[in-house]
Amino acid sequence: MKKTVLLFSLLFSLVLAGCFETTDELTLNKDGSGVLTSTNDMSMIISMAKSMGGSDAMGDEKPTDTTVSLDKMADSLTSLTAEEKELVKKGKLGLTLNMADEKMITRLEIPFSKPEQVDKIKGISSKITNYFLGKNMGDNMPPGLGDKMPSSDPVGDYYITSYSPGVIEKKLNKEKYAGLESDEIMKGVKEVADNGLPMSNTIVINLPSPAKSVTGKKITLSEDKKKVTIKSSAEDFFGNATDLEFRIEY
Q1: Pairing assessment for the beta strands 167-172 and 103-112 based on DSSP bridges
Q2: CB neighbours of 195 closer than 8 A, spacing ≥ 6?
Q3: Is the distance from CB of 7 to CB of 58 less than 8 angstroms?
Q4: Could you please report the per-residue DSSP string of 152-218?
Q5: Which of 4-18, 37-51, 177-191 has the lowest average pLDDT?
């Protein structure tokens, strides 16, 4: 039991600080439908837990590598709207947990019928994580923590991504950015970043046709011009938030 409490205590601390390596892969079809796959790599939690509890503290946990459909979980997420529940029912959640190899990775995959649903899916992902962790931790979940669970991408929440025919654009939400200093979650993100703990984000966009033009300081384009990759970190955000903006025309 001590092992479980230690692991989840660290997990929640890092969740609140946004201390993950995240990858969002967006695949768009010509009709506007597609799939968003969000991967959170939280493996550092296990190495930190081992350093706190000894090298053998978690070595006897049985490895887990599973994928579950979210159709039944959707109705249990009472905070979701009817539209959000329908999106969740089409998705699946994967979990890789291996204490010996120090791996802890979640993979959420949800299809959509129109690109405007992508932002809703990103908002849903934190609620699914909250529910999933709560179910696994049970009575060991710290009181009131569920109400504090942030987005899975706290830095990304400071941007507005718009989708129109042939154009994807991400711009800094200047109004929200003006209140950055009062954001307790972002204070935690900055603290862990200043202490050298990684928080990186990769966005991969698979386009239905070759890009005509791309702009953005963190953006790269594949040879066939159909895959766009944007890599950034918390340090980039706190250094110059506009560096994470981009525009893609295809």
Answers
A1: unpaired
A2: none
A3: yes
A4: S-TTGGGEEEEEETTEEEEEE-HHHHTTGGG-HHHHHHHHHHHTT---EEEEEEE-SS--SEEE-TT
A5: 4-18
Mean pLDDT of 193-208: 86
Can you tell me which residue has the tokens 């991400």? Answer: 170
Q: Where are the domains of the chain?
A: 1-152, 154-250
Gap between the Cα atoms of 188 and 216, Å rounded: 27
Per residue in 108-161, pLDDT (tens digit) is 999 999 998 998 898 888 778 667 655 654 444 444 444 444 556 788 889 999
pLDDT: which is higher, 158 or 195: 158
Q: What single-letter amino acid sits at 71?
A: D
* Mean pLDDT for the chain overall: 81
Instruction: Report the alpha-carbon distance of residue 25 to residue 107 in Å, rounded.
Output: 11
Instruction: Give strand ranges (E) for the chain.
Output: 21-28, 34-41, 64-69, 92-98, 103-112, 159-164, 167-172, 200-206, 213-215, 219-221, 227-233, 246-249
Q: Is 135 helix (H, G, I), strand (E, B) or coil?
A: helix
What is the average pLDDT across 207-226?
A: 97
Please answer whether residues 64 and 48 qualify as being in contact, where contact means their C-beta atoms are separated by less than 8 angstroms: no
